[in-house]
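Students often ask why inverse folding is considered easier than folding. One informal answer: many sequences map to the same fold, so there is more than one right answer. In these notes we will look at a single instance of the problem. The structure comes first.
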C-alpha cells in the first residue's frame, strides 16, 4: 500500500505527463487515455451506493494509484 508521499509523487508525475501530452506532444490519444485513468481513480473512491465495504474501497483506491504509475 502506498503512503501519502508516494501518492503525492504519483499524482505529480501524472499531472506533469498530462501537461506534456496536452501542450508539447499534442497527442490527443494520450490525453484521452489519461482522462480515462483519472475517471478510474475517481470511480475507485465510490462506495457503490453503500454496497462496497471500506476494505474494498481502500483496495480499489490503492489499485487506482498503482495504475497511475504506468503513464502513457
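Output (designed amino acids):
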Amino acid at each position: 500500500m502506498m503512503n501519502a508521499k508516494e501518492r503525492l509523487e504519483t499524482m505529480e508525475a501524472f499531472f506533469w505527463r498530462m501537461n506534456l501530452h496536452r501542450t508539447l506532444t499534442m497527442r490527443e490519444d494520450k490525453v484521452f487515455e489519461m482522462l480515462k485513468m483519472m475517471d478510474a481513480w475517481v470511480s475507485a473512491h465510490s462506495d457503490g451506493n453503500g454496497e462496497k465495504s471500506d476494505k474494498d474501497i481502500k483496495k480499489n483506491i490503492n489499485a487506482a494509484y498503482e495504475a497511475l504509475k504506468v503513464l502513457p
